[in-house]
Task: inverse folding
């Protein structure tokens, strides 16, 4: 599935935003302040973020819940409805751009959009592309029984099961090995 650079980047941003939720991690708030939010948008090279203000933090946290709802949707029609609402509320404004050495590509946010609206437009469109391609199953929750983090499986053979193979995946493989050793 070839989604293009911006879409893949936006999907990574979706995962990172959703996985900051204390409801998912069972830990403290993953977006506690504007500095952490600024690090997230810098880590994902979000273009044209504009100056951050305190309201951006609360708005991105609300967006986080809406993005997570797409992963948690019971069925395709529900996921489609959630994504359509997200894109509609973001007032997408498609336009061509060629910033930072990338060839012409489409941005979906207005240049004047606040950060949450910008992210809702770009991330909502990325989710829409995955769903429209008939690949909704690639939007998943970690297969580890004690983990609720989300992931986007962009592997060729749709084999990604864990949010992080080195932590969740390895932990389960070690537990299975030890269980086999006990019985053997």
Result:
């Amino acid at each position: 599935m070839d989604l293009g650079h911006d879409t893949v980047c936006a999907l990574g941003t979706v995962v990172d935003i959703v996985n900051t939720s204390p409801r998912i991690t069972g830990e403290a708030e993953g977006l506690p302040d504007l500095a952490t939010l600024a690090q997230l948008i810098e880590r994902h090279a979000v273009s044209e973020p504009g100056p951050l203000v305190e309201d951006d933090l609360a708005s991105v946290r609300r967006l986080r819940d809406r993005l997570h709802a797409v992963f948690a949707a019971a069925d395709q029609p529900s996921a489609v409805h959630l994504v359509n609402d997200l894109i509609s509320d973001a007032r997408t404004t498609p336009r061509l751009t060629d910033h930072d050495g990338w060839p012409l590509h489409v941005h979906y946010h207005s240049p004047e959009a606040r950060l949450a609206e910008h992210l809702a437009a770009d991330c909502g469109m990325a989710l829409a592309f995955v769903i429209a391609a008939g690949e909704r199953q690639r939007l998943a929750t970690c297969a580890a029984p004690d983990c609720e983090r989300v992931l986007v499986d962009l592997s060729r053979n749709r084999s990604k099961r864990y949010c992080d193979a080195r932590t969740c995946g390895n932990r389960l493989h070690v537990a299975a090995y030890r269980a086999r050793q006990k019985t053997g």
About this structure: Residues 2 and 8 are 9 Å apart (CA to CA).
